[in-house]
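#struct-help
A.M.: can someone run this one for me? Single chain, 234 residues.
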Amino acid sequence: MVLFFLPHAGGSAKSYSSFKRFLPKDLTVVPMELSGRFTRPSEPLLDNVSDCVSDLIEKHSELLRGEYALFGHSMGTVFVTELVRQAKEKGLAMPVHIFLSGKNPPDEDVHCFENVETASDEEIVSFFSANALSSSVPAPDEELVKFLSLILCTDVRMAEKYKATPDDVKFDCDITVLYGTEDTLMQNVDMNSWSRFTNGKCEVYPFKGGHFYYSNQKKEVCDIINEKLGLSNL
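D.P.: on it. Structure tokens below:
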């Protein structure tokens, strides 16, 4: 089985590599890196969700024909939703389980900015820094700071603009929803509302912590992943 990880805004999918130590060795863990980011810097910096997902499907088309699960945190939930929609359109296999973390469903009017189109780069970076919504470490030089800020702002704008309803996409599998109880973005969100997007069961797991609640609870999160996928815990 393959477990695909989808990144949060401004982050690399490679950040999930540390999860591997808590997952069985026979589970293939594949971080889905978006075009133009981090491990794919020479490729176009795509700036809309549909194009990013089309690119990911093309890049991972063979693995998406077999047995797989999806895990998306924050912006990653947007990409999980769109990936399922496009995969269904293309006649690809559907995931056996979906893990959605740290974000409201894409049909709810819960946003970081009243109008992300008019928010400046400085406002976006400041908001994410002030609310501990970015996992970026201090960058050693000005050019790298600019690069990281460009990725963050591009990601935030396209994720904030994405809309999808249960009529647009319906998951055909059970879903697991996780979030941090102290996450600034989760204070007015009922994560049980993700149940509207699936024909299967929806189970919600609150964790103590903020937006990146899993940073200090990776084993606990991976225990849930193992359980839901029917895999042996380490």
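A.M.: thanks! Residues 142-161 form the longest helix (20 residues).
D.P.: also worth noting: Helices lie at 49-59, 75-89, 121-130, 142-161, 218-229.
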